[in-house]
Amino acid sequence: MLLHGYAPAILQGLGSTLAVAAASLAIACVFGLAGALARLYGARPLRWLADIYTTLIRGLPELVLMLFVFYGGQYALNAVAEWAGATQPPEVPPFAAGVLTIGFVYGAYLAETFRGAILAIPRGQVDAALACGYSHALLVRRIVLPQMVRHAIPGFTNNWLVLVKATALVSVIGLDDMVHRAELAAASTREPFTFYAAVALLYLGITTVSIAALAWLERRYSLGVQRVHF
What we know:
This protein is an all-alpha fold. The chain has a single domain (2-221), classed as MetI-like (MetI-like fold), CATH 1.10.3720. The chain has helices spanning 7-41, 44-58, 62-84, 94-119, 123-131, 136-166, 178-189, 192-221. Helix 1 packs across helix 4 (94-119), helix 5 packs antiparallel against helix 6 (136-166) and helix 6 (136-166) packs antiparallel against helix 8 (192-221).
């Protein structure tokens, strides 16, 4: 029997892993775009805040931040419940803690990716748009963002692949993902290599499909762009 009958359970855990990755990516894109725009076009306090965010978060391990959010968040909820006189404080969901942590962390990396992509846009186009009376909001929406995508895809691909692998950390805080289910199956059968190898192959499959899809997207956005060969 395939994986001693644990294959369906691990595949169900794969759904949780993909959900964590997708939700984390959405949050990371929001933080990343906000951070990049704040550093390039924001007022001085916003630029300082974005600098602190990208510098501080990129210097801290993801696991430490995840444990801090999960256990620290529970401590904060307990304190608020005690102050409010509640007898049963709400629990921090592992899914929410994992998604928020991973999204917040990789938002700092994407902020630098997006900032570099925006800086790759010829400055003359920005100056021309401002000379034509474009507001900064209109400039970003019609000039910056459409061209930023093409320049950002290579760096975005790298961040996405690392983010997908980082989802394995959510098993530490008790989320029932495929790593957690493989751990339970390995403990039950005493064959850890079999189950962790299966999980490794599933992660490899996700990254392989992601690379192919993002490579197609890069080619799609590069249509009409002349490439220089050295």
